[in-house]
Known about the structure:
Elements: E1 2-8, E2 11-16, E3 20-24, E4 33-43, E5 46-49, E6 58-68, E7 72-78, E8 83-89, E9 92-102
Antiparallel strand pairs: 1-2, 1-4, 3-9, 4-5, 4-6, 6-9, 7-8
Amino acid sequence: xxxxxxxxxxxxxxxxxxxxxxxxxxxxEVGASVDLPVxxxxxxxxxxxxxxxxxxxxxxxxxxxHARGPKVRVFKYKPKKRYRKRQGHxxxxxxxxxxxxxx
Length: 103
């Protein structure tokens, strides 16, 4: 099974051909092609590790949709001070379909 570890922003994700990966919001239209830099490629027992990136390797992806992630509740509380603060956050995300791993 061939897979690659790709970098998007400050996050590293595992990408396999045909699968969907979820990254922070990218500035790309739906249907556009996006190339991601590769940190590691594994194909069976053969593993290539970059320093920091693998030379000549890239993962071609297609933007499927832009969405929002699940709501995260932030609750701050200080005992004996009557301080309670509730806040919510939803991260903007982009779904990418992995088309091809080269390298």
